[in-house]
Amino acid sequence: MPERVIALVPAAGIGARASTNGTSVEPKQYRVLAGKPMLWHSVNALLADPRVKEVRVIVAPTDQRATDILSDLPRTRCYPFGGEQRSDTVFNGLSRTDFAPNDWVLVHDAARPGLPADALTRLLDACLSRNVGGLLAMPMADTVKLEDDQQCVERTLDRKHLWLAQTPQMFRAGELQSALKQAAFAGFVVTDEASAMEFVGYKPLLVPGSGRNAKITWPEDFDWVQSWL
């Protein structure tokens, strides 16, 4: 089977931090932005490049909404294989849908609805031309402080080589599946796909992302993302 590029969107969480009271009445990916649920925008952004053959959205087993919300988007399917943690959801998506080991998988956050087409193209171009996995990221612009155990500044970190990870993150499906399995077995906390790959010895490529590709995390994020979405 020839190698394919397939996007995978883990969308089984509730996003409690995005709620004003710390709990979520509905998963944040279904909050409406610019007339459409956030999940719709995040998935639609992945379809901007024709090299993405399909988008697979992995939702919670009891989720009945995503299929209807995404019904007007081409090359998109939903699967009820969501796990307890994001890494579980990604692993389930890789192991329970028809990924071939040499397929490229683009894992993208459901809470990044502003992914620009040119950023997606940069990632695809870089990874495919160099045959190496990588991720979108932004060089750190702010001064970064390290705190002590009293929540005071321990020291200021040199930001010269610091980057903020974004998504999509792009790796061979078989290699990412293996890395996630090894990390889980070792009890390593996986914060993104790149961290799992780093755990097993890979050095992912850093590809410049975009400020518009920020992740919606806090309640106030919805307003500023909607202002330009």
Label this structure with key terms.
229 residues, alpha/beta, Spore Coat Polysaccharide Biosynthesis Protein SpsA, Chain A, seven-stranded mixed sheet, two-stranded antiparallel ribbon, 7 helices, 29% helix
Q: Briefly, what is this?
A:
With 229 residues, the chain is an alpha/beta fold.
Mean pLDDT: 92
Proportion of strand residues: 15-25%
| Element pattern in H and E | EEEHEHEHEHEEEEHHEH
Task: Describe the largest sheet.
Answer: 7 strands, mixed
CATH superfamily: Spore Coat Polysaccharide Biosynthesis Protein SpsA, Chain A
Task: Please bin the fraction of helical residues.
Answer: 25-40%
CATH secondary-structure class: Alpha Beta
- State the total count of DSSP E strands: 11
Classify the secondary structure makeup into a structural class: alpha/beta
Which regions are unreliable across 5 or more consecutive residues at pLDDT < 50?
15-23
Shape estimate = globular
CATH architecture: Alpha-Beta Complex
* Tally of helical segments: 7
CATH fold descriptor: Spore Coat Polysaccharide Biosynthesis Protein SpsA, Chain A
Describe the strand arrangement of the main beta sheet, using strand numbers. 5-4-1-6-10-7-11
Can you describe this structure?
This protein is an alpha/beta fold. The chain has a single domain, classed as Spore Coat Polysaccharide Biosynthesis Protein SpsA, Chain A. The protein has helices at residues 38-46, 66-69, 86-96, 117-130, 173-186, 193-199, 221-228; strands at residues 5-11, 32-33, 36-37, 52-59, 76-79, 104-107, 134-139, 144-147, 153-157, 163-172, 205-208. The longest helix is centred in the middle third of the chain and has 14 residues, at 117-130. It is globular, with a radius of gyration of 17 Å. 39% of the residues are buried. It is an enzyme of class 2 (transferase). Catalyzes the formation of 4-diphosphocytidyl-2-C-methyl-D-erythritol from CTP and 2-C-methyl-D-erythritol 4-phosphate (MEP). Keywords: Isoprene biosynthesis, Nucleotidyltransferase, Transferase. Pathway: Isoprenoid biosynthesis; isopentenyl diphosphate biosynthesis via DXP pathway; isopentenyl diphosphate from 1-deoxy-D-xylulose 5-phosphate: step 2/6.
